[in-house]
Write a structure and sequence with these properties.
- This protein is of the alpha+beta class.
- It has 30 helices and 27 strands.
- The strands form five sheets. It has an eight-stranded mixed β-sheet with strand order 10-27-26-25-11-22-24-23, with helices on both faces.
- The longest helix has about 40 residues, at about 650-690.
- The chain is elongated.
- The model is unreliable at about 730-735 (pLDDT under 50).
Length: about 850
C-alpha cells in the first residue's frame, strides 16, 4: 500500500510494493487469497456513523436564538396566557430546526454521489484468467485490466501500457488526458497529475489499454481521501454566527431589563395587593417586547425570497443562508477547468509548416490537406461526439457533412494506431491515383520522420534544420500557454505498401494544430464584476502552471509572475505568509486546496469556492459557500456545494453576490427597525416610571404586547421584501464584514429610540397639561408610540436609498394604524386599558407619532 499524504513515503518502489502486497503481476491473485483479503475491507468509500435523530434535534434546539424563542413561547403560554403567540413562536423554532437538519443531509448526499461515481465492475486476473467482478470486491494486490471507456476501479500502479491515456480532470483539474506508463519507482511528492505511473479510482480510460496492480482500495484511494474530507462539517455562515451572537446579547439584555423594570414597578405599586403580579407581568411583557422574536421569520422569508429569485435565473440554492453568505464573501477561490473554461478541447490555431506562424487565410491546398488529415486520420465521431477528446476537437473544426463526404471519398485501407513509443497515428487511404498516408502525432515525432514541407503554392520543399528548430520553438510557446500541439503530415504513394510501418517516413509536413480548453464566454465579465465588487479572486487549479497562467490572463485576472505558486512549492515551503501575494495556484492537490480555504478562513475571510470536479468537493464543502457547475460538473461537486448553477452561467455568481448583499441590507434594516422601536418602548416605560409617579404603570403589559404585535410582525416582514438597489454590488460603502448590530450601531439606535420615545412622552405631557386625565394622557402616549414605531420603518430605508414604493410596507403601516384606532374607538377599550380621546388629543397623538419620524429623516438626509 502506498501513501502520499503528509508523513507518508516520499518515494515508492515497485518491487517493494509488489513484495509487500505478495502479488504476482503475471497471474494475479488466487481466488482464495482474494477472498481472505476482501475480509479486511471492501473497495467502498467509508460511511460515517450518524448521530441519533433526537441528538441532532437537541443540537439545534440549544442554539441561543432557539432557546430564546422557546423561553418566549413558555412565558407567553404560562405567564401571559397567550396560546396563539406561543404556537406561532414554537412554529418558528420548528421551521428553523427542519431547515438546519435538511442542510445536514448535504454531506451524506455528497458522499453517496462519490460512491456512485465508482466503477460498477472491473476485469481482474485471478489465477491467470481474466474475470469480471463487482468493483467493490477488488482487493490490494489484484491485477486490473483496462481498456478505453473503463472507469478505473481502484488506485493502480501501471504495469503494462499500450498507448494508455486516462482522463483525470475530475480529480486533478487537468483538462487533457494523461498518458500512463510503467515506472520502476516514483516520487510521491509530485502532484497527482504528474504521477504518470499511477491510475486513480474514479478516473476514465480514454484511449489505449493497459494493466495495473491495485495499491489502494476504498478509503485508501485518492478519492477515498476526498470522501474523508467531505465528512467534515461546514462552518456556520456569517449570518448564522451574527444571529447567534445577536440573540445571545438580546436575551441577556431582556433579562436585565426585566429585572430592572420588575423592581421599579414593585416600588411604584408598594402597598397594592397585586403589586408582585403586576410587576412580574409588566417585566415579562417588556422583556418579550424587547426581543424581536419575529426576526427569525423575517430572515427565513428573506432568504427564501432570494432563493426563489435565484432559481428563476438558473441557480439552485441547496443551503438557505448561502445566498446571503455569497454577499458577504471577501475571497473567491475559483477553479479553472469546467469553471472558467469549458472542459473540452477546441482547435485554436493552425500553424503553417513552411511559415511557422498562425494561418490567417490558409491556401486552398493547405486547407484541403489539413481537413483530410483531421477527418480521416481519426477514429472519433462527431454526431454524436464519441471517442478521444483530442480527435473530437479536430472534427469539430469542420462541417459534419464534409467529414462524411471525405470518409466516403477516401476509404481507409490501412491503419497504424497511436502508441506511446512512436507517439503518432497513421492511416492509409485509397485515392483516385494511388494511396495517401495521413499522419498526426507529437510534433517532435512527426518532424523526425518528415523530409519535406508543403509550400504556399501547394508544392513541397526540403524541411531544413532551421525549419525544425523554429517549429519546435513554436510548440514550446504554445505548450507554455496551455495548448496541446499536434503535427499533421501526408505522403502520397503510388502502390499499396507491403510494410505500412516502413512507409511512415519521408513525410510532407503540413502544419501544426494547437488545441486548448476554451474560456467560457462569460468568464471575463464575471471576473471583472466580482473584482469590482471588492472580492479578492484567486485561481486554484490542478492543471499546469502555463495553462493556469494563460487562462488567468485571458479571463482578466491581473497578477505578476511572482504571484503564481505551485503545489510542489507549497509542499516544500508551506502556504505563503501573505495570502494576498498569490493570485494563481497551479498543480495543487485536493488537500492543498482545502488547506488554502482554511488558511483564508483563519485570517477572518469569508471564502467562496467554485468548482465542478471531484477534486473540488472537499473545498466546496469546507468553504463558507461552495458554488458548483450544474450542467457539466460532477454529481459529487453538486452535492457538496451550497449553490448549483444549472446552466453553467458564471455571471450568476456576481448576481448571487448582489442578491446576498441585498438580503443582508434588508435584514439589517429589519434589525434597525425592531431594535430601535423596541428600545423606544423601553425608554417610554422607564421615563414614565422615573418622572411621572402619578401615572402609575406607564404602559400596561397588554399594551406592550399589542405594540409588539402591530409593529414587529407585518412591517418587519415588509422590510424584508424591500427591493434591492441596482448599484448594490458596487457600493463602496458596503462592507462584507459589517455587523448586523455593532456597539456603534446600537448607540445610534439608542439615540433614535430616545427621539421616538420623546414624541410619545411629549404627547403624554401635552394632553395632561391640556386638561386631560392621566388615563387619556396614557392613551395618547400609547397611540403616539404605535404610530412612531410604524412610521419609523420608512426611516430605516433612507440610509440605503430605498426610495421606491413598497406596497407591502404601506399596507402593513396602514393596517397597524387602523387597528390602533380600533382599540380606542371600538368595544375593547377596557381590555387594553385605554379611554376615548377628544379631537385635540387625537391631533396631539398624531403629532407625537409623526414629528420624531420627521426629525430622524431630516437628520439622516443631512448626514447624506
Amino acid at each position: 500500500m502506498i501513501r502520499s499524504h503528509p508523513g507518508g513515503e516520499t518515494r515508492a518502489n515497485f518491487d517493494e510494493v509488489l513484495k509487500s502486497l505478495k502479488a504476482d503481476v503475471g497471474s494475479g491473485l488466487a481466488d482464495a487469497e482474494a477472498s481472505n483479503r476482501l475480509a479486511n475491507g471492501r473497495n467502498e468509500l467509508p460511511t460515517a456513523a450518524r448521530a441519533s435523530l433526537g441528538r441532532r434535534i437537541w443540537n439545534h434546539v440549544r442554539e441561543p436564538m432557539s432557546l430564546l424563542l422557546v423561553a418566549a413561547a413558555m412565558v407567553s403560554f404560562v405567564a401571559l396566557r397567550h396560546p396563539r403567540d406561543a404556537v406561532a413562536i414554537t412554529a418558528i423554532v420548528i421551521l428553523n430546526i427542519v431547515i438546519a437538519m435538511v442542510q445536514e443531509e448535504r454531506a451524506e448526499s455528497a458522499l453517496e454521489a462519490l460512491r456512485s461515481a465508482a466503477a460498477p465492475t472491473a476485469v481482474v486476473l485471478r489465477s491467470g484468467k481474466p474475470i469480471t467482478i463487482p468493483a467493490a470486491e477488488v482487493v490490494p494486490g489484484d491485477v486490473v485490466l483496462l481498456t478505453a471507456g473503463d472507469r478505473v476501479a481502484a488506485d493502480l500502479w501501471i504495469t503494462d501500457s499500450w498507448s494508455l491515456e486516462v482522463d483525470e480532470s475530475a480529480l486533478t483539474g487537468e483538462s487533457l488526458a494523461v498518458a500512463k506508463a510503467w515506472a520502476s519507482d516514483g516520487d510521491m511528492t509530485l502532484p497527482l497529475g504528474d504521477r504518470t505511473w499511477l491510475a486513480y479510482a474514479g478516473t476514465v480510460v480514454t484511449a489505449g489499454s493497459g494493466r495495473g496492480l491495485v495499491v489502494g482500495t476504498g478509503p485508501h484511494t485518492e478519492v477515498g481521501r476526498v470522501a474523508t474530507h467531505l465528512q467534515r462539517d461546514s462552518p456556520p455562515t456569517p449570518l448564522q454566527r451574527q444571529l447567534a451572537r445577536l440573540s445571545a446579547r438580546l436575551g441577556q439584555a431582556a433579562i436585565a431589563i426585566a429585572l430592572v423594570v420588575f423592581g421599579l414597578i414593585l416600588l411604584r405599586l408598594r402597598g397594592n395587593s397585586d403589586a408582585v403580579e403586576q410587576a412580574f407581568l409588566g417585566a415579562v411583557a417588556l422583556a418579550v417586547a424587547a426581543v424581536p422574536e419575529g426576526l427569525p421569520t423575517v430572515v427565513t422569508l428573506s432568504l427564501a425570497l432570494g432563493v426563489r429569485r435565484m432559481a428563476r435565473h438558473g441557480a439552485i440554492v441547496r443551503n438557505l443562508p448561502a445566498v446571503e453568505t455569497l454577499g458577504s464573501t471577501t475571497v473567491l477561490l475559483t477553479d479553472k477547468t469546467g469553471t472558467l473554461t469549458q472542459n473540452r478541447l477546441q482547435m485554436s490555431e493552425v500553424i503553417a509548416g513552411e511559415a511557422g506562424s498562425t494561418i490567417r487565410e490558409p491556401t486552398a491546398a493547405l486547407q484541403d490537406r489539413v481537413r483530410r488529415v483531421c477527418a480521416l486520420c481519426n477514429d472519433a465521431t462527431i454526431d454524436p461526439p464519441q471517442g478521444d477528446p483530442v480527435e473530437i476537437a479536430l472534427l469539430e473544426g469542420f462541417d459534419p457533412a464534409e467529414i462524411q463526404r471525405l470518409r466516403g471519398a477516401f476509404p481507409r485501407v490501412g491503419n497504424l494506431p497511436f502508441d506511446s513509443r512512436r507517439k503518432m497515428m497513421s492511416t492509409l487511404h485509397q485515392a483516385a491515383d494511388g494511396f495517401e498516408l495521413l499522419t498526426k502525432g507529437a510534433p517532435e515525432a512527426v518532424l523526425a520522420v518528415s523530409a519535406w514541407v508543403l509550400t504556399g503554392g501547394g508544392g513541397q520543399r526540403l524541411l531544413t534544420e532551421q525549419d525544425r528548430s523554429r517549429l519546435l520553438g513554436t510548440v514550446d510557446r504554445l505548450a507554455a500557454a496551455g495548448s496541446r500541439v499536434l503535427a499533421l503530415a501526408i505522403r502520397t504513394l503510388d502502390d499499396f505498401p507491403s510494410d505500412l510501418a516502413a512507409a511512415e517516413e519521408e513525410l510532407v509536413l503540413l502544419a501544426l494544430v494547437a488545441l486548448h480548453d476554451p474560456l467560457r464566454a462569460e468568464a471575463a465579465a464575471t471576473v471583472k464584476n466580482v473584482t469590482d465588487a471588492g472580492v479578492q479572486l484567486v485561481m486554484v487549479t490542478g492543471d499546469h502552471v502555463g495553462t493556469a497562467s494563460a487562462v488567468a490572463r485571458s479571463a482578466g485576472l491581473t497578477y505578476n509572475d511572482d504571484q503564481v505558486l505551485t503545489g510542489s512549492q507549497m509542499r516544500v515551503n508551506g502556504l505563503p505568509t501573505d495570502l494576498n501575494s498569490v493570485r494563481v495556484y497551479a498543480r495543487v492537490d485536493p488537500e492543498q486546496k482545502l488547506d488554502l480555504v482554511e488558511a483564508f478562513q483563519s485570517t477572518g475571510h469569508v471564502v467562496a469556492v467554485t468548482g465542478d470536479g471531484v477534486n473540488d468537493a472537499p473545498a466546496l464543502r469546507r468553504a463558507n459557500i461552495g458554488v458548483a457547475m450544474g450542467r457539466g460538473g460532477s454529481q459529487v461537486a453538486r452535492e457538496a456545494a451550497d449553490l448549483v448553477i444549472t446552466d453553467d452561467d458564471l455571471n450568476l455568481v456576481s448576481r448571487a453576490i448582489r442578491e446576498g448583499r441585498g438580503i443582508f441590507d434588508n435584514i439589517r434594516k429589519v434589525i434597525d427597525y425592531l431594535v430601535g422601536g423596541n428600545l423606544s418602548e423601553i425608554s417610554v416605560l422607564l421615563a414614565g416610571l422615573a418622572f411621572f409617579p402619578d401615572l402609575g404603570i406607564p404602559l400596561f403589559p397588554l399594551q406592550l404586547l399589542w405594540i409588539n404585535l402591530l409593529t414587529d410582525g407585518l412591517p418587519a416582514l415588509a422590510l424584508g421584501f424591500d427591493r434591492h438597489r441596482e448599484d448594490l454590488l458596487y457600493r463602496s460603502a458596503f462592507s462584507s464584514a459589517a455587523q448586523l448590530l455593532s456597539l456603534r450601531r446600537l448607540a445610534v439606535l439608542g439615540i433614535r429610540a430616545l427621539v421616538l420615545a420623546g414624541g410619545a412622552i411629549a404627547a403624554l405631557i401635552a394632553v395632561r397639561n391640556g386638561g386631560g386625565s392621566w388615563e387619556e394622557a396614557r392613551t395618547a402616549m400609547f397611540t403616539a408610540l404605535v404610530a412612531a414605531h410604524l412610521l419609523y420603518a420608512y426611516v430605516v430605508r433612507l440610509p440605503v436609498g430605498s426610495n421606491h414604493f413598497n406596497p407591502r410596507l404601506a399596507a402593513a403601516a396602514a393596517a397597524g394604524l387602523l387597528l390602533q384606532i380600533g382599540t380606542i374607538v371600538g368595544p375593547f377599550r377596557d381590555v387594553f386599558g385605554v379611554v376615548t380621546m377628544d379631537g385635540q388629543a387625537w391631533v396631539i397623538s398624531a403629532l407625537g407619532g409623526l414629528s420624531p419620524v420627521v426629525v430622524l429623516a431630516l437628520m439622516l438626509q443631512r448626514r447624506r
